[in-house]
Known about the structure:
By secondary structure, this protein is mainly alpha-helical. The protein has one domain. The protein is 79% helix and 0% strand. The protein is built from ten helices and no strands. Helix 1 packs antiparallel against helix 5. The longest helix has 29 residues, at 173-201.
Amino acid sequence: MVDKSFAIIFAFLPSILWLLFFLFQDKKPEKKLLIVKTYILGAIIVIPVIALESLFGGALGGYQINSEFVLIFLLMAFIVAPLEEYFKYLSAKLSSFGRYFFDEPTDAVVYLITAALGFAGIENVFYVISLQNNYEFFSVVIMRGLLPVLLHALSSGFLGYFLALSFYNIKKEGYYKKLGFLAAITFHTIFNMLVYASETQKISLILIILMLILFFFAWILINRIKYLEKLKTICKIDIGMVKK
């Protein structure tokens, strides 16, 4: 049996390492206290998400859906992914959006990734705390650190990217926000369905492909962040706008 305190520390470790990696990409570092606050809020917000997923998932299970694949897809596409992406966004919004320190478009990416990694960290804790042996524990922590944890960071990061684009074109703010949520939810859903396929078909190659795909998208996101840093803001960020 894995020691609980040991399990909690190592369950959080992958999300913290990814957080340090993404923060290193930020040329104008944010206040450490605000990063910690956003990370913690992202972790706390998992609790209502679990409750809502259980509620809506139970309601969906009441329908006569014979295909397990269809049921899982509906669960992921219309319950799990939308709820998780919205609440990660909400935690970042509550902790940082519209404050005086939110002074550049890339902040949207940074704070959304931070909230997402807090979310992924506590999600990891719930997942691994019941594992029975050390071998199973370490293999799961490593695999989740390379897949679901990075997934949460990337999906929220791309939402943050589209929100950042809206700062350069305020008239299209609503369009970019909707596009960002659509991209995040779609990315999240496709990833979860591929994981489901790998588990049901026992095809480990799918997990390797998923890992490579996530690393590729991480590279894309980093380049998008650099692209945003090169852009010159058309006008000073409207603090009222980012409160919406």
